[in-house]
């Protein structure tokens, strides 16, 4: 289910939504609750300092359209509510990488 939702959400945003606030959004994961009532959709952006908040607002604004587009594809009794959550793991990995590079011995 998680993979189907991730693919469907990505496809819907790419093909049907023209909101400039979410052009730079990449969806990283979906986690559906066991009762299928809530899907937590994780996303990242290229420039978190400038784009994170507006991307979140754009996704919340497009939530209804995304759900309507996904419902016929999934054939579920209830379409899960979508909760968009910023995924900071890419940013944290970049910070760790920079830290490790700064610790490397310049003579090696």
How would you describe this protein?
- It is a single chain.
- The protein is α+β, with helices and mostly antiparallel strands.
- It has a single domain (2-103), classed as 2-Layer Sandwich (GMP Synthetase, Chain A, domain 3).
- Helix content is 53%, strand content 20%.
- It has a three-stranded mixed β-sheet with strand order 1-2-3, covered by helices on one side.
- α2 (48-74) links the parallel β2 and β3 (81-86).
- α1 (2-16) crosses α2.
- The longest helix is centred in the middle third of the chain and has 27 residues, at 48-74.
- It is elongated, with a radius of gyration of 17 Å.
- The model has no long low-confidence stretch (mean pLDDT 88).
Summary?
The chain has 108 residues and is of the alpha+beta class. It has three helices and three strands; from the N terminus they run αββαβα. Strand 2 (38-45), helix 2 and strand 3 form a beta-alpha-beta unit.
What characteristic shape results from the CA principal axes?
elongated
Number of strands: 3
CATH topology: GMP Synthetase, Chain A, domain 3
> For the largest beta sheet, what order do the strands appear in spatially?
1-2-3
Query: What is the domain tally?
Result: 1
Q: Would you identify the regions where 5 or more consecutive residues have pLDDT less than 50?
A: none
Overall pLDDT confidence: 88
Characterize the largest beta sheet: strand count, sense, and whether it forms a barrel: 3 strands, mixed
Distance between the termini: 47 Å
Range of helix content: 40-55%
